[in-house]
């Protein structure tokens, strides 16, 4: 039964690639799959210890289901991080100008609040 769940898992996760060189993709996807396996194994073990499930087929099914969910979530976070890296590296000037504007606006707001508090204390005192 586990072979069937493995086949379904492989079938669903096979198209989930990353927009990087193939050797980095295999290394990262291997790490993602291993992490998903460890998290699912731990979760299903907790379910067994809490006597919420029993039986090999139920445990196997839940393991593959939880593993799939973890894999997709970790893959999505990794994919978004890679896309963010590409965006920042391709638009570095725009990103730096935007961050500079945000930092300048924050500094201006902080200075304004400081000056207003300073003058309010002088008027009252």
What does this structure look like?
By secondary structure, the protein is an all-alpha fold. The chain has 2 domains: 89 residues, no CATH class; 34 residues. Helices cover 86% and strands 0% of the residues. The protein contains 4 helices and no strands.
What are the SSEs and their pairings?
Layout: H1 2-13, H2 22-49, H3 56-90, H4 92-124
Helix pairs in contact: 1-3, 2-3
Helices and strands, in N-to-C order? HHHH
Structural class: mainly alpha
> What is the mean pLDDT?
90
Q: Give Rg in angstroms.
A: 25 Å
Number of beta strands: 0
- Distance separating the two termini: 80 Å
Helix content: over 70%
Shape: elongated
| Largest sheet descriptor | none
Number of domains: 2
Give me some keywords for this one.
125 residues, mainly alpha, 4 helices, 86% helix
Briefly say what this structure is.
The protein is mainly α and 125 residues long. The protein is built from four helices and no strands.
